[in-house]
Write a structure and sequence with these properties.
2 copies of one chain form a homodimer.
Chain A lengths: L11 H11 L4 E6 L2 E7 H17 L7 E5 L4 H12 L3 E4 L6 H10 L2 E6 L4 H4 L11 E4 L14 E3 H6 L15 E6 L9 E5 H11 L12 E4 L6 H4 L1 H8 L2 E4 L7 H11 L3 E4 L1 H14 L8 E5 L5 H11 L2 E7 L6 E5 L11 H8 L4 E2 L4 E5 L14 E6 L21 E9 L5 E6 L4 E3 L2 E3 L1 H9 L4 E11 L3 E10 L7 H8 L11 E4 L13 H7 L8
Parallel strand pairs in A: 1-11, 3-4, 3-5, 4-8, 5-6, 6-7, 10-11, 10-12, 12-13, 13-14, 24-25
Antiparallel strand pairs in A: 1-2, 8-9, 14-15, 15-16, 17-18, 18-19, 19-20, 21-22, 23-24
Bound molecules: adenosine-5'-triphosphate (2 copies) and magnesium ion (2 copies).
One adenosine-5'-triphosphate (ATP) binds next to β14, β19 and β20 of chain A.
């Protein structure tokens, strides 16, 4: 057959090869349990990845096998990523914040054969020892001096393991559709489900994510991925930074610690970072308390959950940092839409409207095709108000969950995201809810996310959730559940009054309850599933 | 088979679909023969592309057929690009500056069935009428009012043709390796050769080219592709701009006209542009004469030939425009290396060294794998001095020339670019020569490009070329051939003296000749092939 252009496969191996040759001198800085500030270069990283690949081979691991990781963002985790995926194996990142039963389920379901563990996380896995029979052994990510005592069997020391290996390795030539990494969903709406990324999906996602209107990563940047590498591969930054030659700064176990983050940003001159809203609240909190600044920081991505206005507003006004919203999910590698640069035609909007726009989920990145479907299965117009189920399609969208017995796609081949939202004529997506959290009152939809955002903007409110509960007259009505900031109290009337004028009057929750804390999932999201169970017997007052 | 992620094909159709939905409101501005400033939106463009696709179908054209274009950069050419490629046909862009015999050869070799012609270019094709028997007819890109008289047969008017068609069209589902566009090389070193781009190669090139460190295209930008759409698809900007939502400004037949370019830049607020060095010299010339400014312009790409220092220097110092060098070729879609943002580690170099660095061909864009090969076939180190044949590999590099009887790749599957250069440890490529132009004196290489750049920096020199001629003692020695600026004269001694201290002493050409003009190719490059013929009988003086 006549093949006019080369059909060179899109593999992570090609990315590694490029990064080593072209960006090999760029630094990677990490915080680890055994070193508060480890630094070396991409060239060093990939050399050690080859040593590790040799080591994995001597352990009997073969292409197609799965290697688990229970680890933070640091250089050894980076080496494991590349060594495993480029050997044709699957790198299965496990979320250490999952409940033990969930971890057990996922390790078994993912068929992990070896597990690489951060020394600080060994105690987490020890209790599972006898419940994960397919696991042949553990590699503890440290040197001999820092090896923990452990009850686990078949335990190897990472540094000793690779020390004896050659730094030459012939990476196999892989088809671009070879699986590279496995990640399970957060389990917010049900059991975690496995998503198996391929080399192709990872690379294309990488290309799309570094565009000027998305992460806009440059060799001039210094990136701090706070989002964990066990959370959809750290939104791909551990791939895109070496691809571009961006210096990488990784916070290790300190990802939730405002002080460490602030120090890293200032000392390493971080320009760009990414994380969930909770992290930004922690950083803001620290900045306010300490009076510190983050002068090198230009822009941050907030994703994974709706971003509170205060994060967007204070980061910009007090610290001159642009907050960019991303929307996506495990099934999307994760990027779907991004709110980066704004079309010039909209820049002249009044500040308040512009703020609203900038807090939306953003516009589809090229590669992700989106449609909004009404309850009748018809596509809805992009008019800024018609809300419906969000469906997606594209080269880094899931096709089939890993070992799953139900169909993943709809009859037309679209993936139903489980989110509900609307699109405007510029392609700005607004997420109004999760399908499972939707509140339907008197036949009309109420956005729980918008109500929550509005409640959280009250200066005394720490966290808020809205759930729909059965109602005799309206079929369902919203209930507002609020956690106050320490030492603050307000009453029901004041809380509900705060919402007046800010949302449609019939959206105002029919009641409000104050609690000490809300249930959360392993990725730190409010678990409305648990909240609904908790309020199953709630009675409306009238 | 278990396919974990969607394998949605990378097609230009998907790009068009995205651009229409997400960036549909963005403007496209063109200069045409029938309208000095036509403007509409991407939405309008793709609607008309569907009308055109219907029209092509009624003409009997089928997937796999080739449609030629002899046209400038304007909106109708844009519509043709998408209508043809997304119908599964091949869009063959013809360079109107080719000699008639070359045009005839390429039209026949490319098997063009219909040709779309700009009204101003009809006279160019008329003489070929009886020599291109496979061509079934011509579509003149204008409305009835502007139709030229012509001796061609089977001539249709573009606007009338599409006016009667529906704006609904079911684009075929294409495999991503389907050919999309055909372009012939410039014929600088021999006969033009056909390169057939696929949907996949075009899309991947697009992704790579919009990176922050390459074109860095954003929805905030306004792009003016001056490089013709018949010259490697205008370096892909007619794809990447709609992909990102960048407003597109197209100069039509006025691409060489400094005044029009300046007016377009200022009135349309152009931020980014791309073209060959000649165009930048024309623009600089106009700016100097008129005293005009180009305040919106932030950065320009210069590629296709070595960029004179004066372009880089004056654009930056007088007009605050960053000049970014790109290196590539028809066989590479065209992008190979790019000199955009500079690694922070190099930013502190002394200005002179930094200038030298910024005038190199740049660093490999992700996707292009480069190696430098010595005469013994061994790979050379990236040490900033080991010069050899540049070979490339990657998903938008040619695999086989169109209808060609010699192998296109070397035995290991690399494409030999025909260029000679060296790489440094940061991956900066320096082009020293074309393989066919290499001068070897006493066993050592002399860079004709470096000598030419140096000669052209003399304030009175308009153009300069260096060729190697046989020499009894040194086997070959360089001859400098110079065109002076109007009204200027200097003598041989002064000219050669100018080079002293700027290049190694044994590089100084053994003689210098002044001529009124140099021979050029259809893309405006100096034709050293013709120059060598012209000086075949030259005798060294001593
Ligand atoms: N910018 C955002 N605004 C609002 N919600 C967001 C945003 N980004 C992500 N989300 C929410 O996070 C979800 C994706 O999260 P993830 O893939 O981690 O698992 P999950 O959906 O929480 O868990 P599970 O699918 O197991 O129930 C999205 O479907 C969406 O509901
Ligand atoms: N930045 C640059 N600096 C120096 N030379 C360049 C640069 N960019 C491109 N070139 C030259 O242009 C060539 C590519 O041009 P193109 O594909 O238009 O055809 P051509 O090589 O001139 O013609 P042919 O291959 O038919 O002889 C490269 O091989 C290189 O020699
Ligand atoms: Mg989910
Ligand atoms: Mg060539």
């Amino acid at each position: 057959m006549f093949t006019p252009m080369m059909t060179t496969p899109l593999t992570i191996t090609s990315l590694m090869h490029h990064a080593e040759r072209v960006n090999g001198l760029v630094e990677v800085v990490s915080v680890t349990a055994d070193n508060p500030r480890h630094r070396y270069t991409y060239r060093d990283a990939f050399k050690r990845a080859r040593q590790l690949a040799n080591a994995l081979k001597t352990l009997g691991l073969k292409p197609g096998d799965t290697v688990g990781t229970v680890a933070w963002n640091d250089y050894r985790h980076l080496e494991i990523y590349y060594a495993v995926s480029c050997s044709g194996m699957v790198c299965h990142t496990l979320n250490p914040r999952l409940f033990p039963e969930q971890l057990e389920y996922i390790i078994n379901h993912g068929e992990d054969q070896w597990i690489c563990i951060d020394p600080t996380l060994v105690p987490l896995i020890e209790p599972l020892k006898d419940k994960i029979p397919k696991v042949k052994g553990f590699i503890v990510m440290t040197d001999e001096a820092h090896m923990p005592d452990t009850k686990l069997d078949q335990v190897l020391c990472y540094e000793s393991l690779i020390a004896e290996q050659s730094d030459q390795f012939d990476w196999p030539e892989l088809d671009e559709n070879t699986p590279a990494a496995l990640c399970y969903t957060s389990g917010t709406t049900g059991n975690p489900k496995g998503v198996l990324y391929t080399h192709r999906s990872t690379l294309l996602h990488c290309y799309a994510s570094i565009c000027a209107d998305v992460f806009g990563l440059s060799i001039k940047d210094v990136a701090l991925p706070i989002v964990p590498m066990f959370h959809v591969n750290g939104w791909g930054m551990v791939y895109s930074a070496p691809m571009v030659g961006t210096k990488l700064v990784m916070p290790g176990p300190k990802m939730g610690d405002g002080e460490t983050l602030c120090t890293l940003i200032n000392e390493e001159k971080v320009t760009v970072s990414a994380g969930v809203p909770t992290v930004w609240l922690a950083l803001l909190n620290y900045l306010q308390q300490s009076g510190s600044k983050v002068e090198s920081l230009q822009r941050i991505t907030s994703g994974g959950a709706a971003c509170p206005f205060v994060v967007y507003d204070e980061m910009r006004s007090k610290y001159d940092v642009d907050v960019q919203i991303g929307w996506g999910m495990t099934e999307m590698n994760p990027l779907g839409t991004y709110n980066g640069n704004c079309p010039p035609a909209l820049e002249s909007l009044p500040q308040e409207e512009l703020d609203q726009l900038r807090l939306k989920a953003g516009r589809p990145v090229f590669g992700v095709d989106i449609k909004i479907e009404g309850e009748d299965g018809q596509e809805l117009p992009w008019d800024g108000k018609s809300s419906g189920a969000i469906k997606v399609r594209g080269p880094w969208i899931i096709n089939e969950y890993f070992h799953y017995d139900k169909p993943t796609l709809d009859d037309d081949g679209w993936f139903e995201t489980g989110d509900v939202g609307c699109m405007d004529e510029w392609g700005y997506l607004q997420i109004t809810d999760r399908l499972k959290d939707v509140i339907k009152s008197g036949g009309e939809w109420i956005s729980s996310i918008e109500l929550e955002n509005c409640a959280v903007n009250h200066p005394d409110v720490a966290e808020a959730a809205v759930i729909g509960l059965p109602h005799p007259k309206w079929s369902e009505r919203p209930l507002l559940v609020v956690v106050m900031k320490e030492g603050k109290t307000i009453d029901k009337q004041e809380m509900l009054g705060w919402l007046e004028g800010k949302v449609a009057s019939w959206w105002i929750p029919s009641d409000c309850v104050f609690v000490d804390e809300l249930p959360h999932t392993a990725t730190g999201k409010i678990s409305k599933k648990d909240l609904r169970v908790q309020f199953a017997d709630f009675q409306w007052s009238e």
